[in-house]
């Protein structure tokens, strides 16, 4: 894998972890729609992604830095990368900083995105990056994120799952989850409340599908 067109956008991992159907609508069917949340996020990132850098003697900030990893098959852009240099000018340390419009939350979508950026940077710069930071606009402060093995494993698993769905070209069934669906910009295109499964019905649906498969095998 060496063509940028074959690489998975880092943002796609965030979509996939949030909802597989949302991922498929965006990255397989090419459907996109803005709402208040996505519009605010877009404005924030456009402001940050105006590519420029700030430099002091042994410290440099890179805004809107393009990154990719051929090993992980990922491509994206970092809001900010803080670089610490040796006297020779060689990069000694690097820390990605992701900007988000909301508040700090327990869900891992933002952490996965940050970790994927770090994994790309590690490959590009040939250094280890043990942590990064997320700046939440509503909190007005940065949150330090440890980029441990569990998080890195999740990035790899999500990238593999994304490629699997893209190769199959299939859009998963809608599953209505109020917490997610009410904030999703694609809720009108997805129509989860009218065409999807209620989250409590998912286990029953899976059992029914397995039973049907077993019946077919017994014939």
Automatic annotation (TrEMBL):
<dbReference type="GO" id="GO:0004527">
    <property type="term" value="F:exonuclease activity"/>
</dbReference>
<dbReference type="GO" id="GO:0051607">
    <property type="term" value="P:defense response to virus"/>
</dbReference>
<dbReference type="InterPro" id="IPR051827">
    <property type="entry name" value="Cas4_exonuclease"/>
</dbReference>
<dbReference type="InterPro" id="IPR013343">
    <property type="entry name" value="CRISPR-assoc_prot_Cas4"/>
</dbReference>
<comment type="function">
    <text>CRISPR (clustered regularly interspaced short palindromic repeat) is an adaptive immune system that provides protection against mobile genetic elements (viruses, transposable elements and conjugative plasmids). CRISPR clusters contain sequences complementary to antecedent mobile elements and target invading nucleic acids. CRISPR clusters are transcribed and processed into CRISPR RNA (crRNA).</text>
</comment>
<keyword id="KW-0408">Iron</keyword>
<keyword id="KW-0269">Exonuclease</keyword>
<keyword id="KW-0464">Manganese</keyword>
<feature type="domain" description="DUF83">
    <location>
        <begin position="11"/>
        <end position="191"/>
    </location>
</feature>
<keyword id="KW-0411">Iron-sulfur</keyword>
<keyword id="KW-0378">Hydrolase</keyword>
<keyword id="KW-0540">Nuclease</keyword>
<comment type="similarity">
    <text>Belongs to the CRISPR-associated exonuclease Cas4 family.</text>
</comment>
<dbReference type="GO" id="GO:0051536">
    <property type="term" value="F:iron-sulfur cluster binding"/>
</dbReference>
<dbReference type="GO" id="GO:0046872">
    <property type="term" value="F:metal ion binding"/>
</dbReference>
<dbReference type="InterPro" id="IPR011604">
    <property type="entry name" value="PDDEXK-like_dom_sf"/>
</dbReference>
<keyword id="KW-0051">Antiviral defense</keyword>
<dbReference type="Pfam" id="PF01930">
    <property type="entry name" value="Cas_Cas4"/>
</dbReference>
<dbReference type="InterPro" id="IPR022765">
    <property type="entry name" value="Dna2/Cas4_DUF83"/>
</dbReference>
<protein>
    <recommendedName>
        <fullName>CRISPR-associated exonuclease Cas4</fullName>
        <ecNumber>3.1.12.1</ecNumber>
    </recommendedName>
</protein>
<keyword id="KW-0479">Metal-binding</keyword>
């Amino acid at each position: 894998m060496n063509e940028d067109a074959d690489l998975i956008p880092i943002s796609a991992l965030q979509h996939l972890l949030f909802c597989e159907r949302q991922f498929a609508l965006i990255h397989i069917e090419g459907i996109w729609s803005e709402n208040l949340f996505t519009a605010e996020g877009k404005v924030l990132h456009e402001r940050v992604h105006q590519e420029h850098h700030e430099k002091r003697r042994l410290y440099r900030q890179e805004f809107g830095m393009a990154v990719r990893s051929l090993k992980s098959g990922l491509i994206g852009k970092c809001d900010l990368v803080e670089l610490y240099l040796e006297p020779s000018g060689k990069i000694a340390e690097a820390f990605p900083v992701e900007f988000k419009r909301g508040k700090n939350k327990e869900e891992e979508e933002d952490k996965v995105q940050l970790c994927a950026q770090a994994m790309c940077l590690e490959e590009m710069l040939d250094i280890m990056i043990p942590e990064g930071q997320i700046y939440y606009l509503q909190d007005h402060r940065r949150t330090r994120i440890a980029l441990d093995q569990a998080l890195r494993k999740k990035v790899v698993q999500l990238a593999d799952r994304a490629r699997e769905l893209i190769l199959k070209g299939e859009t998963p069934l809608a599953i209505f989850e109020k917490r997610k669906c009410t904030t999703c910009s694609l809720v009108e295109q997805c129509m989860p409340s009218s065409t999807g499964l209620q989250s409590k019905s998912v286990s029953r649906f899976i059992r029914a599908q397995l039973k049907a498969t077993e019946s077919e095998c017994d014939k």
